[in-house]
Amino acid sequence: MNRLEFKSGGQPVFNRDFRLQFENLYKAIEDQYKNQGAFILSGCEVTGSTISPGLVYIDGKILEFAGKSEVSFPAYLRMASPVYHEERMFVEDAANKTTRVNYFADLVGIPPTSGEYIVVESQGGTRILTPVVMESNYKEITSSKIIGG
Q: Is 51 exposed, middle or buried (0-12, 13-18, 19+ CB in 10 A)?
C-alpha cells in the first residue's frame, strides 16, 4: 500500500496526496468485509414500520442509509445511484469539476434485479459481525468454533 512520507521542515502537499490517503483508507475499511455479502454495519433498527438511519455494506462499499418510516415489509436496501457534486474550480480550463461523490443506500419495495441487497423484515435485516478473540498462539476463536491450530 502506498503511503506518504513526511519529512521535517515541511513539504508541498498536492491533491493527489490527499487522494492517495483516502483511497488507502477506503480500501483498508471496505476490503475487510470483502466476500461477506451485503449486511448492516450499524443502525437500521426496525421499530414498528420505521427503519432507523444506519450504515450498510453493499456491493463492496460502506453506504449511509437515511432511515425511513411507513415501510411495508419485506423491504430491500440497495446501493442507490451515486450523486455527483460539482463545484466551479479556478483552474486552467475553468470547468466545473466533480469534487465529491455521495454513495448511499435506499429502500425499495421489490427485490432488485442486479447487485447486492439486504432483505429487511419486520424483525430486522442481516448483520454478520460476530465477536472474535485472537489468542497469543494465533488461534482464532469465535462464538461457535476454533479455526487454526
A: buried
Its pTM stands at: 0.70
Per DSSP, the residues of 67-106 read: -BSSPPSSEEEEEPPPEEEEEE--STT--EEEEEEE-EEE
Is residue 119 within 8 Å of 125, Cβ to Cβ? yes
Q: How far apart are CA 149 and CA 146, in angstroms?
A: 8
The sign of the CA dihedral 48, 54, 55, 59 is: positive
Residue 148 and residue 139 in contact, taking contact as beta carbons nearer than 8 Å: yes
Lookup result for grid cell 424483525: 123
Do 56 and 77 meet the contact criterion of CB atoms below 8 Å apart? yes
What are the tens digits of pLDDT across the range 53-110?
Answer: 999 999 999 999 999 999 999 999 999 998 887 666 566 666 666 667 888 999 999 9
The cell numbers describing 52, all together, are: 432507523
